[in-house]
Amino acid sequence: MASTMLLDLKDSVMAFLPDVPLTDAVIFGIHIHGHLLLETLLVVVICYLLLQQSYTPENRALTETEIDQLCEEWNPEALHPPITDDMEMSTPVLESAAGPHTIVDGKDVINMSTADYLGLVGNPKVKEACNAAVEKYGVGACGPRGFYGTMDVHLDFEKKIADFMGTQDSILYSYGLATTTSVIPAFCKAGDLIIADDGVNWSLQNGLYLSRSKIKFFKHNDMKDLKAILEEVRKEDKRKKKPLNRRFIVVEAIYQNSGQMVPLDELVRLKEEYKFRVLVDESNTLGVLGKTGRGISEHFNIPVETLEIITAVMGHALASEGGICTGSAEVVSHQRLSGSGYCFSAALPPFLASAGIAAVEILEDNPQLLTRLHRNISIVHSKLATIPGISVGGDKLSPVIFLHLQKSISFAEDSSVLQRIVDLMLDEGVLLSVTKRSLLDNCKLPAALKVTVTAGHTEGDLLLVTSKLRDVIEKVLR
Amino acid sequence: MKSTSTYLAFLTLIGYVLVFLAGKWLDLIQFFKFNQEIDSRKKGYAPLSRDLEDFYIRRMYTRVQECFNRPIASAPDTWMDVIERVSCDRKTLIPTKKTRRCLNLGSYNYLGFAAKDVYCTPNVVESIEKFGVSTCASRVDCGTNILHLALEELIAKFVGKPAAMVYGMGFATNSSTIPALVGKGGLIVSDKLNHSSIVVGAKASGANVKVFDHNSPSHLEKVLREAIVKGQPLTHRPWKKILVIVEGIYSMEGEICRLREIVAVTKRYKAYLYLDEAHSIGAIGKTGRGVCELQGVNIDDVHVVMGTFTKSFGSCGGYIAGSKELIHYIKSISPAHLYASSMPPPVAEQVISALKVTMGEDGTDRGIRKITAVRENSNYFREELRKMGCEVLGDEDSPVMPIMLYIPAKIAAFSNECLQRNVAVVSVGFPATHFLFSRARICISAAHTRDDLDQALQVISEVCDICQLKYNPPLRLTAKELARLAEKERLL
């Protein structure tokens, strides 16, 4: 096709240039029949085109004046959004210790809002231990653990907790919130896989996010969904051979956001089958569940070594402050160099470690505290279950009882209704609280009114609270 | 940034290479001798720590571990009892009953509130009696008591901002406030050597993070200009807001932030400024009000002021100070305010008492004497170290002064030799600092007496001779030169 076209072209050129002398030239014995002219022409054109500079769009840097102008034009948003009504929070201000009874606005109220599950706030033994520690060590540790911030009481407490839980070793963080936030990124890095419950508290969420690992969420406390995800992961593994990565399942023993208890036996079966490690946050079960208060593993009668990483805050049952992580010696020693909240934060004030030691000793010596706590929980649970208009969420062993509205609208709407109940209850002399949720929190669980039961409450207190709560709820929901 | 001579850098590098090779060699021997994998990993599970990390801990960190995590059996006062440790297997250190009374040059006890105090301790003991040890609830549940409100008011007054809020932990103050201020579409411009809590907070915020050269306002300006012109990556939309984060005193450098120039830059480019005064509050400035007071910067030009109570005030926790609306907003969103247990009452009481002393509200002049003492002690000590020929970093007035060690073997040597002579110092290397710039860090306190300091200087001089740390030896003048200098002086 092309050759015929070329021949045609040649003919037409020949037609135009019949008398040009070179058209029939013979070069080195070859008749060129007018090729030369045409081809020279083409070569010249090609050369011309090649020598032309290619088109480049103008690519100059901005001048300083232009940059100045752009900077001038830029208008940032305000540092914070305008203050709206829903940012308003009514916070009760206590005028005494946060024990089972406390003073708000000069009035004695029953405190159903403190997480002091064993009723240790104000315990004389704890106070004595703290006074002695403050006299000896002062208040602050004045340095991180690495640089003379470690006192002997820190080491004693770490040993005490490990002995109590039956684990090899434990590590003490200086704040509950910073514990899981540091523990997860210490072990999980980019490329690792974490499967977590979608109702975990913010501290865990933050830890998950900071780890930069691949994260899959399963439906809140739904082992079937967890199994489905694990199965999916296994299938994917079969499809693509990849180097073995660290794999964790992250759950809470009793969820801070819902009061539900993780079915640990089922979870352990799954984790062993699919070869995952597990991190359990025992903030609401340490000193609460089990015959001797050793938490969820004791409750389910599962050896504690089965759970690779156990974390807990000390601000709940131990009535102190700080966080602990316990497990094998390897798990703990790894964190001593990799836990950011451990390495880079000042150590826990030594008197809080003393308070922790005293709390564990009290728990060991007084198992009746647990019996009383369990009895109190069951009293409140049974009384609240019959109030119309609300549903009781959470496990029946959870010390925090979650009351949800049966006719739930939205988190904000529910919150305001529940807050009204809380406000009225405060007038009646009972301190309660409503779940608060930060905009940074991804938890989607519904709003709830929280009734926290401790071993320090008397039966009379609890009956009074439940009957008043029934009246107020009926009044508000009517 | 410090510059190091090529020769020193080379020696430092060789030091690391030797330790690395020795470690590898030992691993190899272990492998052949016992014919086993080094870690006993469970089948089907990936090892808990990465190989290189694991190697670093086993073969490099363990060699020098005796100079870290030293436990003490007393308050972190100017003199403290350091517990001696022994090792049976060269891997773990076991504390013994024996202690050694050491001069403390390691704790952040700038104003000397670390130990029992005549004013603070009785108040703290009383607060334990009245409010118990812990609140066991978050600030919004039943974790707020009158002490928290009093403290918030007092700290706001001290730093000169309309409002403030307090947290139970300094680290969490940064890591949970920064995400409340900037999010997706925002930009954080952070000093290269900012503390880990700021790094964690910035990471958690979801905002873009850019880093500017340590304490360099000109580079900050360059970064800001470029960022504003380019806008967000991919979308090229303009940034929602830009938050510049700096520290008052950089704890590993001893340098004081060049706040005046940085404020000029942030003002010009409409960026918000977040100042972390963890080490500077109480420690510098004529009345201890930190870097703003020292450099005469108007506190209103700093949008968010953060600080901790761990250092100067001998307690625990942190604060954020700013406009009333800002604090209101942060309180409504910050997870550490909504979820975490609030500051334990005795901790709050210690800060209140220490602040009152610092502000002179206790009816004495102890506070101002403490502030003067820490400044004079620091300047004296730094000057003497320099005269000695040590390479000392940091600015005048700063109570933190690193002595450069460079060579990794000297980290342990310096720390241990000092401890042998009853002086406790902190020495750090990689990964806490750049691996070429290992250093020992001295923290001076108002509670140090001149005798303490002189004793420490004598010991340090001795140890520096042993470890050959006098990198800037003083000029040795001949008699002739001295005479000529004296002559010159006489003429003047």
Describe the secondary structure blueprint for this structure.
The complex is a heterodimer of chains A (478) and B (492).
Chain A: H1 2-16, E1 26-27, E2 30-31, H2 35-51, H3 64-73, E3 101-104, E4 107-111, H4 124-137, H5 145-149, H6 152-165, E5 169-173, H7 176-187, E6 193-197, H8 202-211, E7 214-218, H9 223-239, E8 247-252, H10 264-274, E9 277-281, H11 296-299, E10 309-313, E11 323-327, H12 329-338, H13 340-343, H14 350-365, H15 368-384, E12 390-393, E13 400-405, H16 411-427, E14 430-431, E15 433-434, E16 449-452, H17 459-477
Parallel strand pairs in A: 4-14, 6-7, 6-8, 8-9, 9-10
Antiparallel strand pairs in A: 1-2, 3-4, 5-11, 10-11, 12-13, 13-16, 15-16
Helix pairs in contact in A: 4-14, 6-14, 7-8, 9-10, 15-17, 16-17
Chain B: H1 6-34, H2 51-64, E1 79-86, E2 94-104, H3 120-131, H4 146-159, E3 163-167, H5 170-181, E4 187-191, H6 196-205, E5 208-212, H7 217-230, E6 242-247, H8 259-268, E7 272-276, H9 291-295, E8 304-308, E9 318-322, H10 324-333, H11 335-338, H12 345-359, H13 366-388, E10 400-406, H14 409-420, E11 423-424, E12 426-428, E13 438-443, H15 450-467, H16 479-491
Parallel strand pairs in B: 2-11, 4-5, 4-6, 6-7, 7-8
Antiparallel strand pairs in B: 1-2, 3-9, 8-9, 10-13, 12-13
Helix pairs in contact in B: 1-2, 3-12, 4-12, 5-6, 7-8, 12-13, 13-15, 14-15
Domain Aminotransferase class I/classII large (chain B): 102-460
GO cellular component, one term (chain B): membrane
Catalytic activity (chain B): L-serine + hexadecanoyl-CoA + H(+) = 3-oxosphinganine + CO2 + CoA
